Amino acid sequence: MKKLLDPRLLLITSMVVFGTIGLFVRNISVSSGELALYRAVMASVMIGIFLLVTGQKIPFGKIKKEFPLLIISGIAMGINWILLFEAYKHTTVSVATLSYYFAPVIVTVVCPLIFKEKLTAKQIICFIMSTSGLVLITGLGDVGNGNDFVGILLGLSAAVFYATVVLLNKFIKNVGDIHRTFLQFVSAIIVLLPYVLLSSGFTLQKLNTFGWINLLVVGLVHTGITYCMYFSALKNLPGQKAAILSYIDPLVAVLISVTVLHETMTLLQILGGVLILGFTLWNEISLKPKKQS
Q1: Is the pTM of this model over 0.70?
Q2: Exposed, middle or buried by CB within 10 Å (0-12, 13-18, 19+), for 207?
Q3: What pLDDT does residue 215 have?
Q4: CA-to-CA distance for 87 and 91, rounded, in angstroms?
Q5: Can you tell me the distance from the alpha carbon of 110 to that of 80, in angstroms, rounded to the nearest whole number?
């Protein structure tokens, strides 16, 4: 039982599940905004039940001052999902995912501006090489068809909003990870509901049985259950180890794209993906030697 609850195993499992989301999203024939709304609703219900069962009460008294930030970050999360799901529709899962994984690079560059941190030589190198990787993914000026380029731009836009969520979370200090995520999901519903009503409307009736199965998997498994596993693991793992294991997500997404969906990647795009993931991973790794006990 102890091994089954090993935080490393929980995090690895979470990352593998997260990496397969593009496969399921492809089989859900509703708009990106509608899918994001259903995901937020199902995840909120699942995490809400988890909090009730585990007796983890939300400390509303402590978070009054940070509540506006929670709402704004939840709105950013909802927009982030819409853009990512839309990116899957315009380009391959692998290219959309790799474009989306430019988010850590954005955070690295913006942090010195907001928090008055100094960019190290290592961070500058990682930024230059990761950006070079992004240029290679776009095709060095030859992006194939326009639809593919739109997908890359949507993936990058999703990365910007995800980076926004990460940066806002740095200002939210009195709320635990899972409580924060629950409140962000609820906030996402607040903005996604009117967006769906004013745009695509509700089209669940168009889903066949297979579409319903995929929708339930994305909402309940990929978001509700897996987020609970993810945050349970984070509590018991060092930040650096968790950051390194998180790169399983894009690697699985690329493998799924190539082997299951049979989507192709050019050699330049593969090289670009290696540069983005390799240098963002290097940026996460501390080279300081451990202190001897």
Answers
A1: yes
A2: middle
A3: 93
A4: 6
A5: 18
